[in-house]
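PROTOCOL LOG
Step 1. Enter all chains and additional molecules of the complex.
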Amino acid sequence: MQRIHCLRSVYSDLENCLVVTIMGAVAAELQSLGHRPNFFYLQHAMGLASSTGLGLALCMPEQTVIVFDGDGSLLMNLGSLSTMARYRPQKLVHVVFDNESLLSVGGFPTATSTGTDLEGIARAAGIPRVTTIRSVESFKAAVNEAIQGSELTTIIAKVEAKGPAAYVTDLSLLENRFQFHRHIQSLKTR
Amino acid sequence: MPVSAANSKLIYDALKECDIRLVSALPETWLVHLIRLTDEDPEMILVRLAKEEEAVGISAGAHFAGVKSAMLMQNHGFLASINGIVSFAHLYKIPLLMLISYRGSLGERDPWQTQGGNVTEPLLRALRIPYFFLDGWETVKKRIRQAQTLAESSLQPVALLLTRDLMWEE
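Step 2. Run joint prediction.
Step 3. Record the structure below.
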């Protein structure tokens, strides 16, 4: 299973969500499918995409928020699982692309390659719904179910350690940040 | 416990007057009253953290959502947050109002706090984070308001150091 195929399978379902991604391949691949003002790419600060999603979800409890996380980033901030589980916002969907690798720096293996079980960690942290996915079809189904559901969900998607040819895009970090902020403010006046 | 309940209440009321609606915190002795006041207030969202760096992401999310927030942490928690501050708040111009208890400074009795006390101000300066002291009850309200105004206008982190003189009654 490739991450880009997973992202493509749910791209049309992201329209009414606020989307926060980690840096690297996830950000570049989602942008390659077409940037939207409701997408925010956290191009550094590894580990804090899930915290950002939590802040959004706590302040906008009716709004669906999707975080596209990764194994390397989540392993840097495992405490985020326990904080998310503590407050368990109903409309927060936490997707973790687990390629068992720090791909963008040369493919160094992470601890999930030697048996660390992110599903088990998320479950034990108290995340109410956790699932591991190995096919694009079940990925789409799991993400849709989580979007339509009303329970904090972590989806571990086991993907190949394959990424795009380049990581830098023509969208500046600040342009993305201000556009995302303005988009959210516009939602409130509708 | 000789943590000043009266001055903690002053700080809390000043945060409320600034329209702060989310407070993230990791407990430490000087912050107990502030965290309790936040927890007891139905108008306030309290996020209890596992580690202080999470607060940078949570406050950024709150900022995107149009909610004003504050971070309560010890200076060692500030040390633990530095990558988040630099590679999120500074990189993306996110306003942060950081209330940092200044342990390991004048009058500190706990040996384990003293190294962190030595490096707090040099690190704030190195990071170009504007910082000010909360050191007397008379100026608490005004300084908190001014710090938040500066954070919002400059779109950057601003730190307020909570001193022993304000937080401790002995």
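Step 4. Note key features.
The radius of gyration of chain A is 15 Å.
The beta strands of chain A are 18-21, 39-41, 65-70, 92-98, 101-102, 108-109, 129-133, 153-158.
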